[in-house]
Amino acid sequence: MEEKILIIGSGGREYSMGRKFLEDSRIKKIYFCPGNGATQIIGENIFYKTTQELILFIQEKNINLVIIGPETPLVEGMSDALREAGIKVFGPSKKASQLEGSKAFMKDFVSRFKIPTATYLQTSNIAQAIDFIYKLTPPIVIKADGLCAGKGVIIAQNQQEAIETATQMLGGKSFGDAGKCIVIEEFLDGYELSVFALCDGKDYVLLPVCQDHKKLFNGDKGPNTGGMGAYAPTPLCDEVLIKKIKDRIIVPTLEGMLQENNPFEGILFAGIMVVKMNGGLEPFLLEFNVRFGDPECEVLLPLLKTPLLDLCYGVIEHRLNHFEIEIYQQYCLGVVIVSKDYPYKNSPPQVITIDNFDKKIGHLSFGGVNNKDNVLIADGGRILLCIGEGKSFQEARKNAYTLVDKVNFKGMTYRNDIGYKALEHQ
Ligand code: AMP
Ligand code: GLY
Q1: DSSP 8-state assignment for residue 359
Q2: Whose CA is nearest to atom 3 of ligand 2?
Q3: CATH code at 181?
């Protein structure tokens, strides 16, 4: 079998998938669409104007499998269009992608199936919103309904701020149409986990549990970002907690989606808040994403012993029942390096230099980079990820920061406390 793969997307997540596929001798060629300046080194970048044009390209090149990385094409229905053309696609349908595409859909779904989540109100009406805000104790969480690249969630510290935020969102001022319907919810106080389940509609396989770091500054301070670093597996999730997450969140979601004739086939990413209650740890669902997380993907893939290709086909061919996934007994920790003005605005492009390093300690994964005569240029927000591997969490962390020291570009910024909660735990 000789496979040709097409990966849709342009971030570190897509680069790391390509990198993982390259380990597999069955894979002959990897295309990225549109890719970035580093994916063009490990594969071939392609561009298209319409989905029809893309379908023709896939058929012409006899591409065996398409993987859709980001949420926007999934929510817009790219997987359905490709499937209808007879193409094998890893990625859920447009209908199932509403779990991420609409917070209102997601909250209604989870309340129908009694999945634990924060108490909430979904509304487009400001009077209703204000009424509900007065019923909650601050802080109060206000979310735009649609896709906002991880930035559509505001945590208001008092009722006045919550009312102002709700008024702005509903008026279309802060997030355009994505904010014309909002979800207001109680604040959950705890720590977050990223849980990934590969799902074939009926059965699922769980990947090692990760922790992301969404805030820009050390100590989880500052604005939310797309993610400043992640590691896996995390010691903050034991078997008891994993069982609760499976039984109360993953299984009811798969069953509920199937029951509503909307089976979920792809990777389900549950953002979980773990809250200390009654002397135990209780998981609450914050959000669903319908794709691999970024930067979680970059730290999860090196842990997979089972080839990624087998996992993708396991999902597409509905073979996850009794599927045995093999995981390397090691840790991975990734530190994201962002440009100077991230996440506020774009920074001027900068040449990246990378000193030699021992490949045994880890690797780099590239997101916001261009390529000028084989020189990588930082040109975006999240530029690259330094991924340390190790037999222990501490070793992986040390290796990741050793890699950070090998990278240089003007204005580079990163957190130096990635994984601090795991360190505190030990
Ligand atoms: P979401 O896009 O819904 O995951 O929200 C983005 C981030 O906002 C989450 O990762 C949390 O850090 C925070 N957040 C969202 N909802 C809540 C909540 N109900 N309580 C506390 N923090 C929240
Ligand atoms: N790491 C969070 C996300 O991909 O949305």
Answers
A1: G
A2: 293
A3: 3.30.1490.20
